[in-house]
Design brief:
Helix content: 25-40%
Number of helices: 16
Distance between the termini: 42 Å
Radius of gyration: 21 Å
Bound molecules: nicotinamide-adenine-dinucleotide
Shape: globular
Length: 435
C-alpha cells in the first residue's frame, strides 16, 4: 500500500485518492506476492508474522481468523483473555476452521488468563496483536503494545473516557514514530461501497454538505446473567455492554460506527459543540447496569453543518441503521450506497468484499510493504464524538469539543481485582455534573 493509500484511511482523501487507494486495496494480495517484501524491522528475520489475540470473544475470534486468512505467512501464536473459558472456547472454534487450523500454534504455555494476560501475550514473541477486549481496556493495551513495538489491530471504540482518548492519541503518534501499523476496527472505512460513495461526496456529488442524520436504532443485545460465585467485577466484565466504565454506553460502543461515517464525510474535522437528550425508559432493571437505552444528539460544526444523531436499543420498536447526507445539490444514503442529485441517480454496483477481511488484508499488506497504516487520529476522534454525545446526554448541558476532550472524568475502577465494584447511579440530565 502506498503512502497516499495509507492517508486515505484517515478519510482525508479526494475521490482521486480513493480510486488509487482502492486499487491498492484490491491488489493487496498481489502486493504480498509480487513485490520484494520491504520487511519492517519488527518482522525482520522471518517471513512469518506471529499474531497474538488479546480478548478472545466473538469479535476477537473473528479477527484472528481474518488475520490468518489475510496473509498466508501468519501464525496465531498466543492468546489472552480475562477468563479461561472464553479463551478455551475461542481456541476450540478457531481450531475447527480447516482453512487456518494448520497455522494455529497456541501452545498451552502461550495461553494467558487474567488482567495481566495482555502483557504476557505482548511479551510472547508476537509481531502483531489484535486488541479485542471490551473497550475500557483498549488505551492501556494499545500503549503497552506500541511500547513493545508491536503492530496493532485495534477494535472500536478505542476508549470510554477522555483520558483514554488522549492516551490513544499519544500511543498512535508514538506508533507513527516507530513505524508501527495501527488499523482500526471502524470497519466501514474498509468497505468499498462506503469508500466509493464518501469519495464521491468529497468530490462534490451532493454539493456542499449542509446536514447529516445518522441512525442506529436496534433491539436489545445479549445478557449473560449472573452466577452466584461471580464477584461484581466478574459479573460486570462478562456483561460489559451495560456498564459505562466498560463499554462507554451503547452510543459509544455501537453507534460509534455511524458517528465515524459522519466524521469521515466531514474529513475528520471534529464538531465544535453538541447538545443531546436521552435516558433509560425501558431497560430500567438492575441487570442493565447504568447505561441509557436511547439518545439523540445534535452536533454542530464550525462551518454550520449539523449532524443529527439518533440511537436506541429497545425491543419491539422500529429498527433503522442508516446514514443520510444532505447537500446543496442532492443527498446520499451511505448504507444503501446511493446518491441522488436532481435527475442524476447513482448506486454503487462494484465489488462488495467482506470489510472485516479487507481491514486485515490492508493491515498485513502495509506491514509487508514497510508502509504501516495508522488510523489513530480518526479512531480516537470518532470515539470522542461518542463520548461527547454521552456527556451532553448525561448532563443535559451543551458542551464544546474542547471541554469534552479535556474532561478529567476517569471511569476506571480503583483497582482491577475480582472483588466488589459499585455501580454508579444512572445519570440524570440537569443533575449529573460534567467533570
Ligand atoms: N467492528 C465491529 O463491527 C465489531 C463487532 C462486534 C464487536 N466489536 C467490538 O469488539 C470488542 C469486543 O466485542 P465482543 O463482541 O467480541 O465482546 P465479547 O464479550 O464477546 O469479547 C470480549 C472478550 O474480551 C475479554 N476481556 C475483557 N477484558 C479483558 C482484559 N482486561 N484482558 C483480557 N481479556 C479481556 C472477555 O473475557 C471476552 O472474552 C468491543 O470493543 C466491541 O465494541 C466490534
Amino acid at each position: 500500500m502506498n503512502e497516499r493509500a495509507a492517508q486515505s484511511n484517515y478519510g482525508h482523501a479526494s475521490r482521486r485518492d480513493f480510486l488509487k487507494s482502492s486499487s491498492a486495496a484490491v491488489v493487496g494480495g498481489a502486493l504480498l506476492s509480487g513485490l520484494s517484501i520491504g520487511r519492517s524491522v519488527h518482522a525482520a528475520g522471518s517471513d512469518t508474522l506471529k499474531v497474538g489475540l488479546i480478548g478472545c470473544g466473538g469479535r476477537g475470534s473473528g479477527a484472528a481468523a481474518q488475520a490468518l486468512n489475510a496473509d498466508p505467512n501468519t501464525v496465531l501464536w498466543s492468546m489472552g483473555d480475562a477468563f479461561e473459558d472464553r479463551l478455551t472456547s475461542s481456541l476450540k472454534n478457531l481450531s475447527a476452521d480447516g482453512g487456518i487450523v494448520k497455522r494455529i500454534d497456541v501452545a498451552k504455555e502461550r495461553q494467558f488468563v487474567g488482567f495481566d494476560a495482555y502483557k504476557q501475550v505482548i511479551d510472547s514473541g508476537v509481531d502483531v496483536v489484535l486488541l479485542t477486549t471490551s473497550p475500557h481496556f483498549r488505551p492501556a493495551h494499545l500503549k503497552a503494545a506500541i511500547e513493545a513495538n508491536k503492530h496493532v489491530f485495534c477494535e472500536k471504540p478505542v476508549a470510554v473516557d477522555a483520558p483514554g482518548v488522549r492516551s490513544v492519541l499519544e500511543s498512535t503518534e508514538e506508533a507513527k514514530k516507530r513505524g508501527l501499523a495501527v488499523v482500526s476496527g471502524l470497519c466501514y472505512r474498509y468497505d468499498p461501497p462506503k469508500r466509493d460513495v464518501i469519495g464521491r461526496i468529497h468530490d462534490g456529488a451532493v454539493g456542499d454538505v449542509i446536514a447529516m442524520q445518522v441512525n442506529y436504532n436496534t433491539g436489545t443485545l445479549w445478557h449473560h446473567g449472573r452466577k452466584p460465585e461471580w464477584s461484581d467485577m466478574e459479573y460486570q466484565m462478562r456483561n460489559w455492554l451495560y456498564f459505562t466504565w466498560l463499554s462507554g454506553d451503547f452510543n459509544v460502543e455501537q453507534h460509534v460506527h455511524s458517528l465515524d461515517k459522519a466524521a469521515w464525510v466531514m474529513h475528520d474535522v471534529p464538531p465544535i459543540k453538541a447538545t443531546g437528550l436521552g435516558g433509560r425508559q425501558v431497560r430500567t432493571e438492575e441487570q442493565w447496569g447504568n447505561i441509557f437505552d436511547h439518545m439523540a444528539v445534535m452536533y454542530e460544526y464550525e462551518n454550520g453543518v449539523r449532524l443529527y444523531s439518533y440511537c436506541r436499543q429497545m425491543a419491539g420498536c422500529a429498527s433503522d441503521t442508516s446514514d443520510h447526507i444532505l447537500g446543496t445539490k442532492g443527498k446520499a444514503e451511505l448504507m444503501r450506497g446511493e446518491i441522488e442529485a436532481g435527475a442524476d441517480k447513482y448506486r454503487y454496483r462494484g465489488p462488495k468484499p467482506n470489510m472485516y477481511d479487507v481491514e486485515h488484508q490492508e493491515l498485513f499488506a502495509s506491514i509487508r510493504a514497510g508502509q504501516p497504516i495508522n488510523n489513530g487520529l480518526y479512531m480516537a476522534r470518532s470515539t470522542m464524538m461518542g463520548i461527547m454525545g454521552r456527556m451532553v446526554c448525561y448532563t443535559g448541558q451543551t458542551l464544546t469539543w474542547d471541554q469534552c476532550l479535556n474532561s478529567s472524568e476517569n471511569l476506571s475502577p480503583s483497582k482491577y481485582e475480582w472483588g466488589s465494584v459499585a455501580v454508579p447511579a444512572v445519570a440524570k440530565p440537569g443533575l449529573t455534573q460534567f467533570a
